[in-house]
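Title: Comparing notes on inverse folding

I've been comparing how different people in this forum approach sequence design from structure. To keep things fair, I'm posting one structure and asking everyone to reply with a full sequence. Here's the target:
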């Protein structure tokens, strides 16, 4: 059954920096792998996120951290769909994004009430995901990345860093549009941490205006990532929230549409104040 997404955008989209709360259903995610190992824990986390300011819930059942093992579409769906059904039944009106690069998973998720697809490969790994997004007319996050989880940390050599990323995003966007994905449903993510070293991640953040000029809403997903740990000399990802808040504040100042974060409550508080100042 084709489900039409009648409410695909957060309230006040573009007038504030919205929050995408991360729900990892994986045992091996870099920050919180294995934390959410039951329906009860997942529902409690979703409830906490909604109560504390999340605009979108992002569900992922395949880790995309460096070195992660791919479990395949069937296993990913098996891990994801029962949680998605429970969440949608409990919260019929929240926005749910699915973090996947598999077209089969995307189709099943959208058929069971998901609203967005967040593809860290932007359709590069499985081009059929573009057909799925087109069919369901849903928002689609196109992320810049190279390679896969196993080899992406070795793919950090660029000829012209910012231009190379923008050319890749433009190419992926054109492929999506040629598959009848609506241009006004596309969100760009420059791919913090994906095939980029610490210096390069900082360059993206220092030059975020470079990407904004292409006219697409932007998502920044820097939460708890390794480059923050390298700056802070902090090996525990869960101790990187304050560094993450600095980036969220920058995103507010730069009118970024959306940040993807683990700690929703603290980011909501920071953004509430910084949006008052900068917007």
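Reply #1:
Here's my take.
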């Amino acid at each position: 059954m084709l489900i039409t997404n009648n409410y695909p955008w957060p309230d006040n989209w573009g007038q504030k920096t919205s929050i995408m709360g991360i729900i990892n259903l994986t045992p091996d995610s870099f920050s919180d792998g294995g934390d959410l190992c039951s329906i009860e824990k997942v529902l409690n986390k979703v409830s906490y996120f909604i109560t504390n300011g999340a605009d979108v819930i992002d569900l992922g059942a395949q880790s995309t951290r460096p070195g992660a093992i791919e479990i395949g579409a069937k296993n990913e769906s098996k891990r994801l769909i029962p949680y998605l059904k429970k969440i949608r039944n409990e919260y019929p009106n929240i926005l749910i994004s699915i973090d996947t690069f598999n077209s089969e998973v995307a189709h099943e998720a959208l058929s069971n009430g998901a609203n967005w697809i967040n593809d860290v490969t932007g359709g590069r790994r499985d081009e059929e995901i573009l057909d799925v997004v087109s069919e369901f007319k849903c928002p689609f996050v196109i992320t810049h990345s190279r390679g896969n989880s196993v080899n992406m940390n070795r793919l950090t050599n660029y000829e012209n860093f910012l231009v190379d990323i923008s050319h890749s995003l433009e190419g992926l966007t054109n492929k999506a549009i040629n598959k009848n994905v609506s241009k006004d449903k596309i969100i760009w993510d420059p791919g913090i941490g994906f095939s980029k070293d610490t210096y390069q991640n900082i360059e993206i953040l220092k030059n975020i205006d470079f990407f904004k000029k292409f006219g697409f809403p932007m998502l920044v997903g820097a939460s708890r990532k390794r480059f923050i740990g390298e700056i802070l000399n902090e090996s525990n990802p869960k101790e990187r929230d304050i560094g993450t808040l600095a980036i969220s504040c920058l995103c507010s100042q730069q009118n970024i549409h959306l940040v993807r974060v683990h700690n929703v409550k603290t980011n909501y508080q920071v953004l509430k104040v910084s949006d008052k100042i900068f917007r």
